[in-house]
Design a protein that fits this description.
With 108 residues, this protein is an all-alpha fold. It has one domain (3-104). The protein has helices spanning 3-20, 30-50, 56-77, 85-104. Helix 3 (56-77) packs antiparallel against helix 4 (85-104). The longest helix is centred in the middle third of the chain and has 22 residues, at 56-77.
Length: 108
């Protein structure tokens, strides 16, 4: 499978486990904790597969960026978290940076 697809999937799983952390109540609730654990391991595994061919600096930055932007966007759209113009601007800049890293990375 294409390394960029693996990296995107890893980033989406990062969004899942990051958002799921709150529902674990400090890992005192079994099912949410298991969900977070599986998503975390899956995210790391896919990241590890992606960095076989992608530069680690680029892959890690994109992975983190997808996680941050995804968690923020889900928080605003689905969980009713407030968004300010400044926050929207910086999330937009983050997305531009992710796209820029993809476009300037060597294709493998």
């Amino acid at each position: 499978m294409n390394s960029w697809i693996l990296l995107i999937l890893a980033g989406l799983l990062e969004v899942c486990w990051a958002l799921g952390l709150k529902s674990t109540h400090g890992f005192t609730r079994l099912w949410p904790s298991l969900f977070v654990g599986v998503a975390l391991v899956g995210s790391m595994w896919l990241l590890a597969l992606a960095v076989r061919t992608l530069p680690i600096g680029t892959a890690y930055a994109v992975w983190v960026g997808i996680g941050v932007a995804g968690a923020a966007l889900v928080s605003v759209t689905a969980l009713g978290e407030a968004i300010t113009p400044a926050r929207a601007l910086f999330l937009g800049l983050l997305l531009v940076a992710i796209i820029g890293l993809k476009m300037t990375s060597p294709d493998h």
